[in-house]
Amino acid sequence: xxxxxxxxxxxxxxxxxxxxxxxxxxxxxxxxxxxxxxxxxxxxxxxxxxxxxxxxxxxxxxxxxxxxxxxxxxxxxxxxxxxxxxxxxxxxxxxxxxxxxxxxxxxxxxxxxxxxxxxxxxxxxxxxxxxxxxxxxxxxxxxxxxxxxxxxxxxxxxxxxxxxxxxxxxxxxxxxxxxxxxxxxxxxxxxxxxxxxxxxxxxxxxxxxxxxxxxxxxxxxxxxxxxxxxxxxxxxxxxxxxxxxxxxx
Length: 249
Known about the structure:
Number of helices: 9
Structural class: alpha/beta
Number of strands: 10
Number of domains: 1
Low-confidence stretches: none
């Protein structure tokens, strides 16, 4: 039996978490496990989710940052064949998006899809675009780097790459470094690396990715975290590794 999961990553977004969870529940295939993974919210998120969405699996940990919270999600989804991490500001609007990613992953050797809409780069493998268009009536999109607000993966990714490196603290760079290891492991069989599918991407609504939640924390703290994590990423590039044990806190 094919198993599926979606994890909603959240922190202090009680005002919009209801729309987010409902959007997922309304659009995923029947039988999909839906997790809300909370990075120690200090607002009413725990009470709201458990009261209004009793069928959703709610998991809460201490406030350790985005990478640590996404590791919780990866841990919860590690035995599912197809999984998706969604940040709490990207709301699904229509049914079918999960099935599109699942179909393309099944029909190709691409085990990782991500948002790329900010900037697009041209296709370098024209036969692939033709194949998707002719076989599935789908349109691939490519970006210069992966965005972290939507990541669709197969079970093989977690088994091969493990989790995000715990050296990252707070916000910034943990997800990007993890995705680079996915590509390094040969799990994105396309030279463009960062792939999305337009027909699925168009089924989401962005509701603000730099306001609310973590972005209401002290700006100086966020700036310091980004600076430290950027240096951590530079240091890790010197190491020849792919798998990082999946640790949750």
